[in-house]
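Data deposition worksheet. Section B asks for the primary sequence of the deposited chain exactly as it was used as input, without tags or linkers unless they were present during the calculation. Section C holds the resulting structure in C-alpha cell form. Section D is free text for depositor observations; keep each observation to a single sentence. Incomplete worksheets are returned to the depositor.
Section A, Depositor: J.P.
Section B:
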Amino acid sequence: MRLTVHRQGDGFPILCLHGHPGTGRSMGVFTDYLSQKFLTLAPDLRGYGDSRTSRDFEMADHLRDLEELLDQHHVSQCLVLGWSLGGILALELALRFPKRVSGLILVATAARPRSNHPAVTWRDNLYTGIGSILNRFSPGWRWNIDFFCRRSLYRYLLQQHTADAYHRLAHEGLPAYLKTSQAASRALSRALRQGYDRLSDLENIQVPCLMLCGEADRHITAQSSLETAHRLPNCQVQRYSNTAHLLPWEIPHQIIEDIDSWLNQYSEQVDSAASPGRVSDDV
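Section C:
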C-alpha cells in the first residue's frame, strides 16, 4: 500500500521508522533536527496513523511497503533509524536489502526482544486513562503527572517524568495510540507469539550501527538491546541510566548529541571507504 510519509529536509536520506503505537510525526524528536542536514522520510507504517487499513496483514508486509516507498522517492541507498518496532524493521531491511541500507541507528530495540513488564492491573489502566485525558487538555500539568501518571503505565515507559516528555505524549503519543489499528496490533502480536529471533543472522549486517538503550526499559530490556549490539559486527552502544522505553522524549538533547557524533564518524567511514581520488558526496 502507499504509505503516508512525512518528508523533511534535503541531502542524504534517512528513513525514520516509528514503534508501536506510533506515527511518522512521533519521530519528530529525531527528524526536526536531522532534517537540517539530511533528507528525512518518516512514514506512517501500514495500519498506523494515516496509512489506514482494516485488513489483516503480516509483519513482512511492512518491508514490502517500505521498499515501495524508497522506490517512490528514488532512494537507492539510505541510513535507517528505527525506534522499538521500527528498529526491528530496520534490522530486517538491512538483512533483506544490504545494498540499500548503508547504516543503522537503533533505539530501544532488539533482534530478540524481551520484556520484563509486570502484569497490567485495572488500576494501571484506570490511572493511565485519566492521566492521558488530563494531559491531553493540560500537557505537562505537574499535579496530574505526580498524582495519576506516576501511578499509571507511564511509570514503565518513563523514568524522568518531565513536562517536555508529557507534552510529546499529549501531542504525538496519544494521537498515535488512537490511530493504531487493530490489524496492526494483531500483526505485531502474532510475530511476538511466534518467538521473533534474528540474532543468528546479525553477522550478515556489516554496515556501521549505533544502538541506544535505556537502563530501565521494561518493554524491550537493555539486556536484549545489548545482546543485539554485541552480535552486530560494527556497532557502537550508548546505554543511558535513569531512562526507559521513551528515552528520546526523556533526554532528547543527549540523544541527538550522541546521534550527531556517530553520524560524523559514519561520514568519516564513508569517506575513507571511497576509492582513492574520489570524494564521497553521500553524507
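Section D:
Confidence is low (pLDDT under 50) at residues 274-283.
Residues 272 and 280 are 9 Å apart (CA to CA).
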